[in-house]
Design brief:
About 35% of the residues lie in helices and about 15% in strands. With about 300 residues, it is of the alpha/beta class. The protein folds into 2 domains: about 140 residues, Rossmann fold (3-Layer(aba) Sandwich); about 120 residues, 3-Layer(aba) Sandwich (Rossmann fold). Strands 8, 9, 10, 11, 12 and 13 form a 6-stranded mixed sheet that branches. The longest helix has 22 residues. It is elongated, with a radius of gyration of 20 Å. About 45% of the residues are buried.
Length: about 300
Amino acid sequence: MMALTACAAQQPSEQPNADNATEPVEQQTQESSAAYPVTVTDVKGRSVTIEKEPASIVSLTPSNTEILFALGLGDKVVGVDEYSNYPEQANAIKKVGDFNGPNIELVTQLKPDLVVAGGYIQDDAVKKLEDLKIPVISSEAAGLEELYETIDVLGKVTGTQQQAEQLVEKLKSNMKAIADKTASLDKPKVYFNVDINGFFTAGKGTFISELIAMAGGTNVADDSEGYAQYSVEKIVEKNPDIIITTEHAGSPEDIKNIEALKNINAVKNDKIYSLDADIVNRLGPRVDQALEQLAKAIHPEIFE
């Protein structure tokens, strides 16, 4: 389920027109803000030393690709995973395998100074790259605080610490503005559909649950931990007011056609919303857009 949410959809998605959206930094020549060598601790607790400012970088997850571009490093990214489709320039970069199985041979052929890997699913790839003396940072975030830490770490090792600080500040400001608007409103019950095949959802401890709360909703699946399988019976029992889904997780029509769900509030009141998976399921520099999409579905009145 971690892989599912990190990869999101395989097809590129159009970016919504959001006033508070965080856009990738324009490519520009920047003086490095780091003195090398730089030693950092990544999300897995590994101490990693980067001897020189990276001139060529490989990203093995879509969220990390987006972070690198948002820091203005797109011209240094020489390889990405198959699902990295944003920003548009990422589609033209050499593909080095999918999220679960990066092609180590292809990665080594690119001679990267730095590889940015996923946190836990890509353990084998990290070990193989370490054995080849290629510097690897594990930086796949699981929650908002880890996202901010990931941006900070990548800023430090790439000489873009000032840009990283500005990005984190902007994300926090944008998200606080939305959370403040919903803080005093009623909290409708929300069910987030991760995958209709098996009724997987985002429970307590996921960034999706964090965002639902900030968007002014109550996640009915907070009685489960992480990305969990949820029964139809439990969905009926919780009777959500709103169901959030994404393009590839199951359409609103698919959900409406499930006989057992036809009497829950979300179905009866036609409050099933399909959001952009590439934005909502990726914990990266567009997380403020993800929060805005959720808030518009849960409390559309504050955007009128």
